Amino acid sequence: MIADPIVRVSGLRKVFGRTLVLDGVTLDVRPGEAVALLGPNGAGKTTLLKIVATLTRPTRGTVTVAGADTVKDAEAVRRLVGLVAHGAYVYDDLTALENLRFWTTFGGRRLAERDLRSALGDVELESSADERVRTFSHGMKRRLGLARLALTEPRVVLLDEPFAALDERARKWLEEYLRTVKARGGAAVMATHGFGRDLDVADRIAVLASGRIALDRPRDGLALEELGRLYALATEEAS
Amino acid sequence: MTFARRAWAVAWKDVLVERRSKETVNALLFFALLLLFVFQFALGPDRERLGQVLPGLLWLGFILSGLLALGRTFLVERENDCWEALVSTPGDKSAIYVGKLLGNLLLIFSVEALVLLLFVVFFDVDITHALPALTLVIALGTLGLSAVGTLFAAMTAGVRARELLFPVLLLPVQVPVLLGAVKATEAALAGEPLSAVAQWIKLLVSADVVYVVIGILTFDFVLEG
Fold first, then answer.
1. Is residue A28 part of a domain?
2. How confident is the model at residue A1 (pLDDT cuts 50, 70, 90)?
3. S-S: A120 plus which of A73, A108, A125, B188, CB 3.0-4.6 Å?
4. A149 and A159 both lie in a single domain
């Protein structure tokens, strides 16, 4: 029996001023599934993620997460979803540890310092725990943002260019983390441009082009060359 | 309890960020110093005239430096898109308002204490007899200023012309607070008891209550809008 989708996007349309960004997007993500969202720049990948995360309202259509509507029941959706978009959501003038302490307290949780340090250790930032984020490289900030995300234990993980600026160890940690999310019945949607290893953890590939899902198929058995050909065809047809 | 902890976390974070960056406090102190120089030159040594305009000048200094501080309230949230994470974290959003208000009050009170000290030095006035009453009036006036300022700063945070829009929105709403604060300060500096200006104190307290309640009740809509 196929499980009900944990994320259901139906007829989603989004217009910013006169610009049509999403035009009737329909996409289901089931528990235990990771969907890689591919598409050219400006295709609407980030907008789609932000609508699922309740940060942007749809112009038309609906998005539900575990049955909760992102507009009518945004608070319920927020309890289920975790997003890391372009910004890492960290304060430059706080230390890495202070950032995690702030976000967990603000999220209504009280974690012991050893748990916060352990989360930093997971992303190889333990030795920088007491350093100000201002001194961090872009990759270190991304790792800290991912540690923040992991501490919130979301059921649905939304990532925008998740592997960008990550070194090999951080990439492996993220892949492992996403497998854990899937194993416990959660799901992930990752917007990416990468055709290579970025897709290793994905179960499905969805191509977003000209505001529509131009291709949606399982990752299994899909060679990179074939994917490249399908991607080119889908984006060409959509435009 | 969670609400208080969340609000405190926001206030603690803002104070810590400001203590380390000193971006706002340095600019405010420099601005206050410049303002005092201008007042000093404009008024000259005429002590009688000074006594008449001092309450107004004091509040002009507080309001102008307050405008600068309040306008920057949400700039820190634009760093690494923290604003998005604040909005998407589940929980009562008015805790952000209360936290930001607390942080602003701490910052503005510190600057006002220094501005007051500089006034004493620059204009050679003795305020020791008026200090308890003056402290109360400044606290009430600053709460009214910060309560609306924090709300309007959130409303204009994402607007391109926010530097222009923020004072244009804020100043008209501040009229009752300014009137009450200047009148009560005038009485306090003249050595009169605050009971002599009870109607102005009542106006200040009412404005504070109304502004804080409106801020708490509407912040969610402001943030989600």
1. yes
2. low
3. A125
4. no
Asked if residues A20 and A212 have their Cβ atoms less than 8 Å apart, the reply is: no
The model's pLDDT over B15-43, given as tens digits with 9 standing for 90+, comes to 999 999 888 888 888 888 888 888 888 87
Q: How many domains does chain A have?
A: 2
Judging contacts by C-beta atoms under 8 Å, the chain A residues touching residue B12 are: 102
A141 touches chain B (CB under 8 A): yes
Query: pLDDT tens digit string along B70-84?
Result: 888 888 888 888 999
With CA atoms as reference, report the closest residue to A98 among A85, A80, A117.
A117
Domain that holds residue B85: 2-224
Tell which of A91, A95, A144 to mutate to test the B interface (max B CBs under 10 Å). A91
pLDDT tier at B122 (50, 70, 90 boundaries)? confident
